[in-house]
Design goal:
Layout lengths: L2 E6 L4 H9 L8 E4 L4 H11 L6 E6 L2 E5 L2 H9 L2
Parallel strand pairs: 1-2
Antiparallel strand pairs: 1-3, 3-4
Helix pairs in contact: 1-3
Bound molecules: glutathione.
Glutathione (GSH) binds next to helix 1.
């Protein structure tokens, strides 16, 4: 089963756009606030290469992908 985690913080309008779309998608997305939890910020930088939010971490068949663009994230999640 794939797993999904959204790195975000409250003051980011692009994050709000993604968060607003979550109620209408079929999969569970774990929310990881990078301002409240420095460990999440660290893993975002280490895994994805930069601290920019929103970023969707997709783990599937042992492979991890990091998707950074809010509109890409929304359209990806809506197709699942
Ligand atoms: N094009 C991006 C814009 C994302 C963006 O500008 N995020 C800002 C917060 S609103 C950010 O993370 N800035 C801090 C950083 O890059 O570390 C999207 O739509 O996802």
């Amino acid at each position: 089963m794939p797993s999904y985690a959204l790195y975000y913080y409250d003051g980011c309008p692009y994050c709000q756009r993604v968060l607003g779309a979550l109620p209408n998608i079929k999969v569970d997305v774990e929310k990881r606030n990078t301002m409240r939890n420095p460990d999440f910020r660290k893993e975002l930088i280490q895994g994805g290469g930069r601290s920019t939010v929103p970023c969707l971490r997709i783990e599937e068949n042992g492979q991890v992908r990091w998707m950074y663009e809010s509109l890409d994230i929304i359209s990806y999640l809506q197709k699942l």
